Amino acid sequence: MLEYQENKDYQNLLDFLPDWETNWLCVGKIMSEPLGINKQDGNVYWFSEIPYSNEGICLGTLDKFLGNYVFGRKYYEIVPWIDEDDWYQFMIMHGLVFEGENNE
Questions:
Q1: What's the CA gap between 69 and 76, in Å, rounded?
Q2: Contact 16, 52 (CB under 8 A)
Q3: How far apart are CA 53 and CA 25, in angstroms?
Q4: What mean pLDDT do residues 82-96 have?
């Protein structure tokens, strides 16, 4: 997730989308791939295929995205090298996810 000032500077990551300035808000990146909220349906989309198309992977509404992918067990599905990832290790230490859960 991007901080406010950084977020403002990254909005052009979604410029490949129709009406991107009106309908989309870039909220972060996974590696260099943009995450955007569609203002029309309220869902978070991950644009992981290069060249980017206007059909990203829907990760659910913002609250579902945060609960499942940022603070939950689906984090490993979108972040590479989770065994070396500090945030994933923090979640294991604090019982948000359990080690080996990604192997289920």
A1: 8
A2: yes
A3: 16
A4: 89
Q: What is the pLDDT of residues 9-19, one digit of tens each?
A: 788 899 999 89
Burial group, residue 28, by CB count within 10 angstroms (0-12, 13-18, 19+): buried
Predicted structure pTM score = 0.81
Find all residues with CB under 8 Å of 96, minimum gap 6, and list them: 71, 72
Give me the torsion for CA of 10, 17, 62, 91, rounded to 10°. Answer: -60
CB 46 within 8 A of CB 35: yes
**H or E element at residue 60:** strand 57-61
pLDDT digits (tens, 9 = 90+) for 64-88: 999 999 998 899 899 888 888 999 9
